[in-house]
């Protein structure tokens, strides 16, 4: 047992890693929290499109009927693969066909996995905020400096104590340029007439992740299948699957785990199907862990020498692999991710109750107010570089209590240790769900019983119907103001709804005529293929909101010698010059009749 301890520790860490990361990546706004109100967006925001990406993501919600279908469909698929392997005798062709299929799905999941990994590295190396000298410093990419709460400025691009490291000016400028390139988001738009429509925010990390994922998947599919590359694709499958599947309710998750509990026992102990398919197929449906082989690598021996040949023969004879199916990660991990989202739900639910009680004491109104959702994903680097005592509301919201998640993780670890121990003692393959399912379910429901949250856990649901109901209720409020909005919109330009004249900026007539011609020409044209990549630019005199604009009174030309321009005065001077060119007195404002 002792020589195998590193192997089994590797197995345990590899099983927990995709569950922990995917569970945190799957966090979304709970039903009891109100969406964050839109504020002025900056060109280089880190979380610019996270909410949009999560809102557009299609989540597969499972129902109690799936608890019956899962074992039947899984058993039929397993039996089909087993009989194909028996009929072919050589699994090479089946491995090749399944490899092509998994390469397509694996490319998508591997790209997402690498993108989030690179985003994590970016957050640690180039965070958007950090603490120092008892203050919070926030980046202003436009001004190429960090600004504190009191308006002080640091021009070093490095965070935390690293800002005191002296950097040559060329290196500092290159780091700021690198930061701009890493955080800058472009808009990708692709339309094929009545076939495909894509509009997505992309950045440099997306391009790098897609390129690297394509290379890794191509090597695994067409060149070689080393165990570490198979494990990488397995991590990617687990990481992506746990973000796109939810058991909807705790009771549905319990039914699914219970059904697959008996499925795993039957096909491992009473049939050869599971073991045969797992050992014969060389596709990323499992994680592989090399066991100690006792072979000593001949250091310095050339290829083809007798010593190297003996070493390879020893490996072929003695090296074996410990295996863990992806189902033993995804099936329990689905409930672990659900437990983390339930923790987030309780965090905002208790906030809404405290807010409602406070408002009731002040005004006597019994109406319960939902707290604003502040996000729960990302900003790991900002949390690392910021002292906990200086965390703002956004960072504190990302560090919410997680009792149910940690309890289920402990139950999963206990189940996995039990599986490995029994397998080593019995010297026979074990159905991992036999030990994992009781550990996870007992820890989840036991924690709810201990904390008095059984009813909350049973009633909590992630069904889209709850979101649609809340959206319909919120959609009723704008309808009440439709008449007012319509009167304002239908008012004559240059006048408000009461007919009072207001100052407007007159637009050149040539531009209006050109726009009209374009619209007229669009009716006689049909767009078959449209592809565009739009980069955000900052023209002179733009009104893009930056942190430096918010703290302009604290900035000075000596402390931050950047291109700080009063955009309002520049715009006013430009409009004045246009009026002079058109023959209008500069002091007169245009009023549209």
The description of the largest β-sheet is:
4 strands, antiparallel
Q: Strands of the largest sheet, in order across it?
A: 2-3-4-5
Count of helical regions: 21
Q: What is the mean pLDDT?
A: 78
Query: How many domains would you count in the coordinates?
Result: 1
Q: Roughly how much helix do the residues carry, as a percent range? A: 55-70%
InterPro entries: Peptidase_A22B_SPP, Preselin/SPP
Keywords: Endoplasmic reticulum, Hydrolase, Membrane, Transmembrane, Transmembrane helix
Pfam families: Peptidase_A22B
Membrane topology: Multi-pass membrane protein
Throw out a few tags for this protein.
9% strand, 11 strands, globular, alpha+beta, single chain, 21 helices, 4-stranded antiparallel β-sheet, 593 residues, disordered C terminus
Short description:
One of its GO terms (biological process) is signal peptide processing. It is found in: Endoplasmic reticulum membrane. With 593 residues, the protein is of the alpha+beta class.
Please characterize this protein's 3D structure.
This protein has one domain (4-33, 55-465). The protein has 593 residues and is α+β, with helices and mostly antiparallel strands. The longest helix has 37 residues, at 327-363. The relative contact order is 0.14. It has helices at 5-25, 50-56, 64-88, 92-125, 169-183, 204-222, 227-244, 250-269, 273-280, 306-318, 327-363, 380-385, 393-397, 403-426, 433-451, 454-459, 464-480, 482-490, 509-522, 547-550, 567-581; strands spanning 60-61, 129-132, 135-140, 145-148, 153-154, 185-192, 196-203, 245-246, 286-290, 321-325, 529-534.
């Amino acid at each position: 047992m002792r020589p195998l301890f590193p192997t089994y520790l590797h197995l345990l860490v590899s099983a927990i890693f995709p569950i922990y990361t995917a569970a945190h990546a799957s966090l979304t706004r709970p039903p009891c929290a109100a969406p964050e109100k839109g504020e002025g967006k900056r060109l280089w925001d880190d979380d610019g499109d996270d909410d949009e990406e999560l809102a557009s993501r299609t989540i597969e919600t499972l129902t109690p009927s799936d608890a019956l279908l899962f074992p039947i469909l899984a058993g039929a698929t397993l039996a089909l693969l087993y009989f194909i392997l028996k009929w072919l005798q050589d699994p090479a062709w089946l491995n090749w066909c399944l490899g092509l299929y998994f390469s397509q799905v694996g490319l998508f999941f591997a790209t997402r996995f690498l993108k989030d990994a690179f985003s994590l590295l970016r957050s640690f190396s180039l965070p958007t905020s950090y603490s120092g000298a008892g203050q919070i410093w926030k980046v202003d990419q436009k001004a190429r400096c960090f600004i504190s709460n009191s308006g002080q400025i640091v021009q070093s691009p490095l965070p935390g104590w690293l800002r005191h490291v002296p950097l040559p000016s060329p290196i500092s400028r290159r780091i700021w340029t690198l930061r701009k390139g890493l955080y800058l988001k472009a808009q990708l738009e692709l339309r094929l007439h009545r076939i495909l429509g894509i509009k997505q925010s992309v950045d440099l990390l997306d391009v790098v992740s897609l390129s690297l994922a394509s290379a890794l998947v191509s090597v695994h599919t067409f060149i070689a299948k080393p165990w570490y590359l198979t494990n990488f694709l397995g991590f990617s499958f687990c990481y992506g699957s746990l973000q796109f599947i939810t058991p909807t309710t705790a009771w549905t998750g319990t039914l699914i785990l219970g059904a697959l509990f008996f499925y795993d026992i039957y096909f491992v102990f009473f049939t050869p199907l599971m073991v045969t398919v797992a050992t014969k197929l060389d596709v990323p449906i499992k994680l592989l862990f090399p066991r100690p082989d006792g072979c000593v690598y001949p250091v310095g021996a050339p290829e083809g020498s007798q010593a190297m040949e003996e070493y390879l023969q020893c490996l072929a004879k003695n090296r074996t692999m410990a295996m863990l199916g992806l189902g033993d990660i995804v099936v329990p991990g689905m409930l672990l991710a659900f437990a983390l989202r339930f923790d987030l739900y309780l965090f905002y639910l208790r906030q809404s109750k405290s807010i409602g009680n406070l408002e009731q004491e002040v005004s006597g109104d019994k109406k319960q107010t939902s707290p604003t959702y502040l996000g729960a994903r990302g900003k790991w680097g900002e949390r690392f570089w910021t002292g906990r005592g200086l965390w703002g509301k956004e960072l504190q919201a990302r560090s919410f209590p997680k009792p149910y998640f940690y309890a289920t993780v402990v139950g999963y670890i206990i189940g996995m240790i039990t599986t490995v121990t029994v397998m080593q003692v019995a010297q026979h393959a074990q159905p991992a769900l036999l030990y994992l399912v009781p550990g996870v379910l007992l820890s989840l429901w036991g924690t709810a019983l201990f904390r008095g949250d059984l009813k909350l856990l049973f009633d909590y649901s992630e069904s889209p119907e709850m979101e649609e109901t809340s959206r319909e209720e919120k959609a009723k409020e704008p309808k009440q103001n439709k008449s007012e909005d319509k009167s304002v919109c239908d008012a004559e330009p240059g006048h408000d709804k009461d007919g009072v004249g207001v100052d407007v900026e007159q637009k050149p007539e040539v531009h209006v005529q050109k726009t009209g011609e374009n619209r007229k020409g669009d009716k006689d044209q049909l767009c078959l293929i449209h592809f565009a990549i739009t980069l955000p630019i900052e023209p002179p005199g733009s009104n893009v909101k930056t942190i430096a604009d918010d703290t302009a009174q604290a900035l000075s030309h000596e402390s931050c010698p950047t291109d700080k321009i009063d955009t309002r005065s520049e715009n006013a001077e430009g409009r004045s010059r246009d009026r002079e060119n058109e023959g209008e007195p500069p002091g007169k404002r245009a009023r549209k009749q």
